[in-house]
Specification:
Mean pLDDT of chain B: 92
Low-confidence stretches of chain B: none
Structural class of chain A: mainly alpha
Order of helices and strands of chain B: HHH
Largest sheet of chain A: 2 strands, antiparallel
Radius of gyration of chain A: 22 Å
Helix content of chain A: over 70%
Number of strands of chain B: 0
Strand content of chain B: under 5%
Largest interface: A-B, 44 and 46 residues
Distance between the termini of chain B: 54 Å
Shape of chain B: elongated
Number of helices of chain A: 19
Number of helices of chain B: 3
Mean pLDDT of chain A: 91
Oligomer: heterodimer
Shape of chain A: globular
Radius of gyration of chain B: 17 Å
Chain lengths: 503, 100
């Protein structure tokens, strides 16, 4: 008898999605649905944290090895659920009076389910279904403000590029299937491991190009990034939070599983590609972020740059000839950076939503509430929001009292341990460049001339930002007399790294 | 029995037509059709490989992928409909509020 309790977290999220969708049909006061969503997500998050080191493979019916619950899946599940909780609390404020809010919550929950399925899948079919579930739900969410031309444009661009990326992905998968005769990632790994000669055949090269392009679109690597700034800028800010923090990490979860587990024997084919993509992505992302005048668009480009940092994991894992400590550190650092970026970027987009909300409700009609000139003197007009936003930007920049520093440090350290000094220098220079545009916003908030009188700060938004900032600080600080939470995350990521790289 | 290469060639041609359409067309519906064409090329590949190696999982994959394409098209048409309501046209060349 197989024990299915490991699947309880995802089961709870599915059940909550169905309950929210059905209840929404019959009730008038829909605000309660937001709280139901939150309870579901928090219960699920609690169960994931409790079972963080579970390692259960479902090899018999009805899953036939398609689903596995290992520390790697659990750390991504925790990430998706934390982002879900932050977005759900912010949605209480942003869509509290919207008559269609039940659709928002159920789509958000279904997107979370899709992301969790991707993290737990050990079979390309399950992975593809989870990927599409999350994508289709987020296409609709990007266009949720359907009277806003920008939101619809964001949804249109996201949808067309998303459809293109999934067809590239299936095309690549079809060739992998044709070469190995299986869609199970472990079987694929053993077939390729037994036939290293396949690495030079045209079929595998074609499959590799298609897969890298397909996932590259999802993770917004340069040159597949064009949709990302437009979509993140046009979509409602709290949806951008879900896209940048959740959907993008799902792309990484899938790519880690496919490339680092399934196609590791073919690494000669892909590691140079990932090295070029990583360097291009972080450099172009950072340089374009510097010239932006919209804070939301700046965050979108910084999100691209962070994808470049995480892509370093692929390079280090494949480069190291004798897999050892560098591989583990790279994977650990990659997972930790995904974690810190998920919390930091989700909260930063929510902060943008909060500030735009205050500006629109106080100053009336402005052309672009996200324009950086509206942030002048924000520290005097909305002190709490400005302070928390500044700390979030510090975490994204990797400044010490916050978790963003720890994760970046572990990740960059691994490149030096692997002997990729050139790559390490590029990473650090990029990181330094990124401080410029984060600091620019903080400067304007603290030293700019205020454009009007003080705002009334929304307690809901402030609460979300406070949770995120406290989480980022607590994860960094050593606590006296007990194990610090940051160490626990490190251990978790390390166990996950061992699980996924097999070192 | 038609050899496997012919199927792969057909799928490759379909895929190329779809990719060419994505790059050159600007009508929203036509772009959606091109995406579907590329997806169906991949499905054809899956089914051809599945018969070739005598394993059924490729056909199962193709069935799932057809169902997902239908769901994707439903959301896609809804989005294109909203574009039409706002602008009374679906030429995406003119959808350019968001630019750097």
């Amino acid at each position: 008898m197989v024990d299915y309790t490991a699947l309880l977290p995802i089961g709870i999220v599915i059940a909550t999605a169905v309950i929210v969708l059905l209840t929404g049909l019959f009730i008038e006061q829909k605000k309660i649905l937001g709280y139901i969503t939150l309870v579901g997500l928090l219960t699920s998050l609690g169960l994931v944290l409790k079972g963080w080191d579970l390692n259960v493979a479902f090899d018999s019916a009805p899953f036939y090895g398609a689903i596995v619950v290992d520390p790697f899946a659990q750390i991504f599940n925790a990430m998706f659920l934390i982002v879900g909780v932050l977005v759900a609390i912010a949605a209480l404020k942003a869509y509290g009076d919207n008559p269609r809010q039940d659709e928002f919550y159920s789509m958000m929950l279904l997107a979370t389910v899709g992301m969790m399925v991707v993290a737990m899948s050990k079979d390309l079919l399950a992975l593809f279904i989870g990927f599409e579930l999350a994508s289709i739900a987020t296409y609709a969410m990007a266009g949720f403000d359907k009277r806003d031309p920008k939101s619809i444009e964001a949804a249109l661009k996201y949808f067309l590029i998303g459809g293109l990326s999934s067809s590239l992905m299936v095309f690549g998968i079809s060739y992998i299937y044709g070469l190995t005769g299986s869609t199970n990632i472990d079987t694929i790994a053993s077939v390729f491991g037994a036939n290293p000669g396949l690495a030079t055949t045209p079929a595998i090269l074609l499959a590799m190009v298609m897969l890298i392009a397909g996932f590259g679109f999802k993770m917004a690597f340069v040159p597949f990034h064009m949709w990302a700034p437009d979509t993140y800028e046009g979509a409602p800010s709290i949806v951008s939070a879900l896209l940048a923090a959740g959907s993008k990490k799902m792309g990484f979860a899938a790519a880690f599983r496919i490339f680092i587990v399934g196609l590791i024997a073919m690494k000669v084919d892909w590691y140079i590609a990932f090295m070029i993509l990583a360097v291009l992505t972080m450099t172009v992302g950072n340089i374009l972020a510097v010239v932006q005048t919209s804070v939301k668009r700046m965050l979108a480009y910084s999100s691209i740059a962070h994808a470049g940092y995480i892509a370093v994991v692929f390079v280090v894992v494949a480069y190291d000839p004798a897999p050892g400590v560098a591989v583990i550190h790279a994977m650990t650092g990659g997972l930790m950076h995904a974690f810190s970026h998920a919390i930091g970027k989700a909260a930063a987009f929510i902060a943008v939503a909060a500030i735009a909300y205050m500006i629109l409700s106080k100053d009336g009609k402005v052309d672009d509430p996200n324009h950086v000139s509206n942030y002048d003197g924000l520290a005097k007009r909305a002190p709490m929001t400005a302070f928390l936003f500044a700390l979030l930007l510090c975490s994204l920049a990797g400044i010490p009292p916050l978790f963003g520093f720890t994760s970046k440090f572990v990740l960059f350290l691994s490149t030096i341990e692997a002997g990729l000094v050139g790559l390490a220098i590029i990473c650090v220079l990029n990181s330094a460049l990124s401080v410029y545009y984060y600091a620019k916003v903080v400067m304007r908030m603290y030293w700019g001339e205020p454009k009007g009188e003080a705002f009334v700060e929304s307690s809901t938004y402030t609460f979300v930002l406070a949770i995120a900032v406290i989480a980022l600080i607590v994860l960094f600080m050593p606590l006296p007399g007990m194990v610090s939470p940051g160490d626990l995350v490190y251990q978790w990521a390390e166990v996950a790294a061992h699980a996924v790289t097999g070192v | 029995m038609i050899p496997l290469q012919y199927y792969l060639l057909l799928a490759g041609i379909l895929f190329a037509i779809g990719a060419y359409g994505i790059m050159t067309l600007s009508n929203g519906i036509r772009l959606l059709m091109c995406v579907e064409l590329m997806l169906n090329a991949a499905n054809l590949n899956l089914v051809a490989f599945s018969t070739h190696i005598n394993d059924v999982s490729g056909q199962v994959f193709a069935l799932f992928s057809i169902a997902l394409a239908a769901a994707e098209a439903a959301v896609g048409f809804a989005i294109i409909l909203m574009v039409y309501r706002l602008r009374t046209e679906i030429d995406i060349e003119n959808v350019k509020l968001l630019r750097w």
